[in-house]
Write a structure and sequence with these properties.
Length: about 270
């Protein structure tokens, strides 16, 4: 008896379903074996795996505390530590308090100097960088002035950021570019200039000028060296936005870490 085309399609679909069922059974069997080794149930093992992956993701998230009210500052630091985030962005005057409150927890304190516009000039940025370095900051977020970039004043930009880099070789300098206000060529040109003076981390914006799109981050990437990192700013506090940014950025800064953590955990189902 000759099979019709419809019968062939139905048979193929049945075989596919059977194959998927076998694979699923095999996966469940492996999960059960692993769970038994650790003396856990499969559900416990799945939850532990999700928690582990979430924590790895949280380590790449920095919380922007520059807009937090003074009376809430210490509570927000406690929140960052308890959730396992990688770092905080604070004003220079908050560095010592942040270091004291965080204690031995593995949370980086990054001081935002001349923030958010970066139009104060080279000497001010260098002096501010020296101070926060002495106060124990792990890094410095340094805005590059939009006017200087628009004027194509690359020599001035090179000199002012180089002064910050030379303050302390172990201090991480994160150059902040308002990518949403710049063209792709301006971004790429500025990034290449700063890479040449030793900057290895670049932030896509402060959040004051709105979010940043993938095209801007790609322009940034095209000017980066292989060992440089991209830091994106997410200003809405949306877990889904943070997750999507990780496809084109190495780290993400958000102003609402607790909300982001809650949404990510919800999406993971725990």
């Amino acid at each position: 008896m000759i099979e019709t085309e419809l019968e062939k399609e139905e048979k193929t679909e049945e075989e596919k379903t059977e194959t998927e069922a076998i694979v699923k059974t095999s996966e469940n069997s492996e999960m059960l074996k692993t769970a038994l080794v650790f003396g856990q149930s499969e559900d416990e093992l799945r939850r532990e795996f999700k928690e582990y992956k979430a924590l790895k993701l949280f380590r790449k998230i920095y919380c922007d505390l520059t807009r937090v009210k003074t009376e809430s500052f210490e509570d927000k630091l406690d929140e960052v530590v308890s959730l396992g985030f990688g770092g905080v962005i604070v004003f220079p005057t908050q560095v010592r308090k942040a270091k004291e409150k965080i204690g031995k927890a593995d949370v980086k304190v990054v001081a935002a100097v001349c923030y958010p516009f970066g139009e104060e000039g080279a000497n001010v940025k260098k002096t501010a960088t020296k101070k926060v370095s002495a106060w124990g900051a792990n890094g410095v977020l340094v805005p590059v002035g939009i006017n200087s970039i628009k004027a194509d004043n690359l020599d001035f930009i090179r000199r002012e950021i180089k002064r910050c880099v030379k303050v302390n070789k172990s201090l991480k300098i994160i150059a902040l570019l308002e990518c949403g206000e710049l063209t792709g060529e301006e971004i790429e040109r500025t990034v290449k200039t700063l890479c040449a003076v030793g900057v290895k981390s670049f932030c896509s914006g402060s959040g004051f000028f709105g979010g940043v799109d993938g095209i801007s981050l790609k322009s940034m990437r095209s000017g980066l060296k292989a060992d440089c990192e991209r830091v994106a700013t997410e200003k809405k506090g949306e877990g889904s936005d943070v997750i999507s940014l990780f496809s084109i950025a190495d780290k993400v800064i958000t102003a609402d870490g607790e909300r982001v953590a809650r949404e990510i955990r919800s999406r993971l189902g725990y």
